[in-house]
């Protein structure tokens, strides 16, 4: 069996920034399969790739000149594709030169892979930063099996078609042997899109692989002394009040202003005035160079100040709003201390926080998950209190329901969710994807020859979602203070 190559914008090197479950899972698979992890080095510049071997994995990282990186990452990936794929067409900023920079950086990645790959290797590409990569690799004559996994939502045709040149860009996905999506809805959107643009038979297979977490590992960390003492300290600071928690990168897709407003609405309810609830929102900053993130930060600061000013009492502050990031050992303790979690993104490919919250709970006294219907995780966790994140009353009422839910119902819901998380964990996600990629038919068409001869025979997967994981591997800006996973 050939080696496995994982390609993502960033790589998780041992001893580097904080490691999440996704990074750990990929590292495990890479170790088992004599793997190579390819990504940006984190440095600007030109020159040959850096090779580093760590814990059985070969890391191959490339420097990228700053102007190219700005065009590729800051602009096209995060100011064009990210808002588009999250249905925020109002925020899409398309510039042709940024698209060209994005294509150039993908070419750089392809050249590095061309130097490294052997004929029987398999390549697994991650996320929207690298959509054109297989195409660039095919142009260099690389015939290996190449799979792509999209971590974010795949929107419908009417949204995708607003992107200038969408047919060219999204058409390039057909150069992969396998395109994996988070949910059946994402897959149907992409299939509908392909039909609308007249590509009824993509040469690649489409399938859903809902990402999971290492539920057992998260549960163990949450029950370990570091987490338990973090939970105790947090509870002690609440003076007997109940706690709601939110943990999200500071990103407009996560629905934070809407959530703050919904919490304010809850505070107006009579019962809430009798038994006040404290809401802890942890929101580490990311992509700080992108203006929309700066605007969001200001908006949240204003909202938190306003809501606190309106409702706080001398001995109680309703919203504790924190921009720092915390190690997972502490975060799981915070999850465990919270009576409910508010996971209300406006759109989310999956949302791992929802799953981590569930896995961190004490089985005898679990908390309640309030979850957006717009998150991929809602497919796998129907026992959560599902809400429309745009509807402040719906979310405020769900908070009331969560606070008054009897212990027996909380346990029943939690057990069903936990069962799902255990059965569909991150290891299974990775092995399902790789197994499917290795047996993909089109790869045989490529092997050792030109891709032009490969017959397009679509095989789309309608199987129900395999449920349910930890971290984004795309984010480049992980300052030492606010690092999120990798
Ligand atoms: C993309 C897709 C999809 C957060 N704060 C801290 C911290 N985190 C960790 C969480 C979680 C991860 O970051 C966030 O994962 P999400 O899934 O919630 O969201 P994205 O970053 O947007 O990820 C998403 C995911 O890819 C995987 O496919 O689910 O839909 O958008 O693991 O715990 N980690 C630490 N400290 C923090 O303060 N250590």
From TrEMBL:
<feature type="region of interest" description="Disordered">
    <location>
        <begin position="440"/>
        <end position="465"/>
    </location>
</feature>
<dbReference type="Pfam" id="PF00982">
    <property type="entry name" value="Glyco_transf_20"/>
</dbReference>
<dbReference type="InterPro" id="IPR001830">
    <property type="entry name" value="Glyco_trans_20"/>
</dbReference>
<keyword id="KW-0808">Transferase</keyword>
<dbReference type="GO" id="GO:0003825">
    <property type="term" value="F:alpha,alpha-trehalose-phosphate synthase (UDP-forming) activity"/>
</dbReference>
<protein>
    <submittedName>
        <fullName>Trehalose 6-phosphate synthase</fullName>
        <ecNumber>2.4.1.15</ecNumber>
    </submittedName>
</protein>
<comment type="similarity">
    <text>Belongs to the glycosyltransferase 20 family.</text>
</comment>
<keyword id="KW-0328">Glycosyltransferase</keyword>
């Amino acid at each position: 069996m050939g080696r496995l190559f994982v390609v993502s914008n960033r790589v998780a090197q041992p001893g580097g920034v904080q490691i999440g479950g996704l990074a750990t899972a990929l590292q495990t698979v890479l170790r088992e399969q004599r793997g190579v992890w390819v990504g940006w080095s984190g440095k600007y510049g030109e020159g040959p790739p850096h090779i580093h071997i760590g814990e059985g994995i070969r890391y191959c990282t490339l420097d990228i000149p700053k102007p190219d990186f700005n065009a590729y990452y800051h602009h096209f990936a995060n100011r064009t594709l990210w808002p588009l794929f999250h249905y925020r067409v109002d925020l899409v900023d398309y510039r042709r030169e940024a698209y060209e920079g994005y294509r150039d950086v993908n070419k750089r990645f392809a050249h590095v892979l061309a130097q490294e790959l052997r004929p029987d290797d398999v390549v697994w590409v991650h996320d929207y930063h690298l959509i054109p990569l297989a195409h660039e690799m095919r142009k260099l004559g690389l015939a290996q099996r190449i799979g792509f996994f999209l971590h974010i939502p795949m929107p419908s045709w009417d949204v995708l078609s607003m992107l200038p040149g969408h047919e060219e860009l999204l058409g390039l996905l057909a150069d992969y042997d396998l395109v994996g999506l988070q949910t059946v809805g994402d897959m149907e959107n992409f299939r509908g899109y392909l039909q609308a643009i007249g590509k009824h038979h993509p040469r690649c297979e489409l399938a859903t692989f809902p990402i999971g977490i290492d539920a057992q590992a998260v549960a163990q960390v949450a029950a370990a002394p570091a987490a338990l003492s973090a939970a105790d300290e947090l509870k002690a600071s609440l003076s007997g009040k109940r706690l709601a928690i939110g943990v999200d990168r500071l990103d407009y897709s996560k629905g934070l202003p809407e959530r703050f407003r919904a919490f304010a609405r809850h505070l107006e309810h009579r019962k809430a005035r009798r038994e006040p609830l404290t809401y802890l929102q942890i929101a580490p900053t990311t992509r700080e160079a992108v203006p929309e993130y700066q605007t969001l930060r200001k908006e949240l600061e204003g909202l938190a100040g306003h809501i606190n000013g309106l409702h706080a009492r001398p001995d109680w502050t309703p919203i504790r709003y924190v921009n720092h990031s915390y190690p997972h050992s502490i975060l799981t303790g915070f999850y465990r201390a919270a009576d409910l979690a508010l996971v209300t993104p406006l759109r989310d490919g999956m949302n791992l926080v929802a799953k981590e919250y569930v896995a961190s709970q004490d089985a005898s006294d679990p908390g309640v998950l309030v979850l957006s219907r717009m998150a991929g995780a809602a497919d796998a966790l129907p026992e959560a209190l599902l809400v429309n994140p745009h509807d402040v009353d719906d979310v405020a009422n769900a908070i009331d329901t969560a606070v008054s839910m009897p212990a027996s119902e909380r346990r029943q819901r939690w057990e069903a969710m936990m069962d799902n998380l255990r059965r569909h964990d991150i290891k299974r996600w990775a092995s399902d994807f790789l197994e499917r990629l290795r047996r993909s038919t089109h790869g045989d068409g490529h092997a050792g020859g030109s891709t032009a001869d490969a017959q397009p025979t679509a095989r789309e997967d309608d199987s129900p979602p395999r449920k349910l994981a930890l971290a984004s591997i795309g984010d480049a800006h992980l300052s030492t203070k606010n690092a999120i996973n990798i």
